[in-house]
């Protein structure tokens, strides 16, 4: 790993800014931040033929590099974080899976220390407050109704680092839990839900603002019973998560979400589990055994999809080359939108002076070639410095 230079100019690339793409652009890095001016005699890194985009922000991620954020040691969690950084994710929220309440509270305490150290951007609790009808890769025996007192217990255990809870808001206590989260500035996300259209509208009105991996673990759209998908897509207050790995979603479903919600309301996520960036084999997702074959994770018992092995550089590449989403829209969905939702857009999510020097270098085919985080190269592009 290369170290941090005091001042560096990245020149010649197509640079994606909030205002659009700049041909033959320049990004000046001073220390840990992007600078609005160019220091004299600063080394210049020629990135002609490349793209420079903001570092990716993943708000839903369970692990990687062989490590689980739900059960791994601190060192293992950091291994997972580093794995995703090497694939362009410079800001990452650690997601847990369903477990006993005391266990989840203990994990929240451990993960919150890593948030306080700056290694993580927050904690996302996916379960146990979800529907047994749409449990996916969660242990049904450990599921419970979203009692606001228990939601508050996990919030308190996270010591202010809880960023999001996924809830089946139609369950008893669901709406009250949404209101509690909204009052404390924590994202209430609707997911793993069997809600009707009307129940989903009620939850959005109560303060829910995110759809956890839209389409997955929820009823399909019906012409007489439109269900949660229609309600989540149509409401401008809601951001919809999408897992663009080629397994969770048909390209037409992704296109429908972009067309109906617009890029400003899409957040590309990984929902990654331990095998991301690591390989096929047998893994544990909470108490459940998972088999990963050809990059697809499924429960050993029941064969349900069990998260993904996706990294965000692959999601970016698919979105541009397969789904034909404009580059600027993909950047909005993979960096700016999740940064805004997490309340960190003043620091990350776009290439603007004063923000952290978090960026990704892609070649002309949108393959990852470089990653910088806070001015330090995690992956250094193989180009000449003058």
TrEMBL record:
Its EC number is 3.5.1.25. One of its GO terms (molecular function) is N-acetylglucosamine-6-phosphate deacetylase activity. Keywords: Carbohydrate metabolism, Hydrolase, Metal-binding. It comes from the Bacteria. The keyword Ligase does not apply. The keyword Hydrolase applies. Residues 51-377 form the Amidohydrolase-related domain. It holds the Pfam family Amidohydro_1. InterPro entries: Amidohydro-rel, GlcNAc_6-P_deAcase, Metal-dep_hydrolase_composite, Metal_Hydrolase. Belongs to the metallo-dependent hydrolases superfamily. NagA family. This is N-acetylglucosamine-6-phosphate deacetylase.
């Amino acid at each position: 790993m290369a170290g941090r230079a005091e001042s560096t100019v990245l020149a010649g690339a197509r640079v994606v800014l909030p205002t659009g793409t700049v041909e033959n652009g320049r990004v000046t890095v001073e220390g840990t931040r992007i600078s609005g001016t160019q220091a004299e005699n600063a080394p210049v890194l020629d990135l002609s033929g490349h793209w420079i985009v903001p570092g990716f922000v993943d708000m839903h991620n369970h692990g990687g590099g062989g490590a689980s954020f739900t059960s791994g040691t601190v060192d293992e969690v950091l291994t997972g974080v580093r794995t995703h950084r090497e694939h362009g994710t410079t800001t990452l929220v650690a997601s847990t899976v369903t477990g006993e309440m005391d266990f989840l509270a203990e994990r929240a305490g451990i993960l919150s220390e890593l948030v306080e150290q700056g290694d993580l951007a927050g904690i996302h609790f996916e379960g146990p407050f979800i529907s047994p009808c749409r449990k996916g890769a969660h242990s049904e025996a450990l599921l419970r109704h979203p009692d606001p007192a228990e939601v508050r217990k996990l919030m308190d255990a996270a010591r202010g680092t809880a960023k999001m809870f996924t809830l089946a808001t139609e369950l008893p206590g669901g709406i009250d839990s949404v209101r509690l989260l909204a009052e404390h500035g924590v994202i209430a996300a609707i997911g793993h839900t069997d809600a009707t259209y009307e129940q989903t509208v009620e939850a959005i009105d109560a303060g829910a603002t995110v759809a956890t991996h839209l389409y997955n673990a929820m009823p399909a759209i019906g012409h007489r019973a439109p269900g949660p998908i229609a309600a989540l897509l149509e409401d401008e207050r809601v951001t919809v998560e999408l897992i663009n790995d080629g397994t969770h979603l048909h390209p037409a479903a992704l296109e429908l979400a972009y067309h109906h919600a617009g890029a400003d309301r899409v957040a590309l996520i990984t929902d990654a589990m331990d095998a991301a960036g690591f390989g096929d084999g047998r893994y544990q997702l909470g108490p459940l055994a998972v088999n990963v074959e050809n990059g697809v994770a499924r429960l050993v018992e029941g064969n349900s999809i069990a998260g993904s092995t996706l990294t965000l550089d692959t999601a970016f590449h698919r979105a541009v080359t397969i789904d034909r989403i404009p580059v600027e829209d993909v950047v909005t969905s993979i960096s700016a939108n999740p940064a805004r939702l997490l309340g960190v857009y003043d620091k990350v999510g776009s290439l603007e002076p004063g923000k952290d020097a978090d960026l990704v270098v892609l070649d002309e085919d949108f393959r990852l070639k470089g990653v910088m985080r806070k001015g330090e190269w995690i992956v250094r592009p193989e180009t000449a410095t003058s």
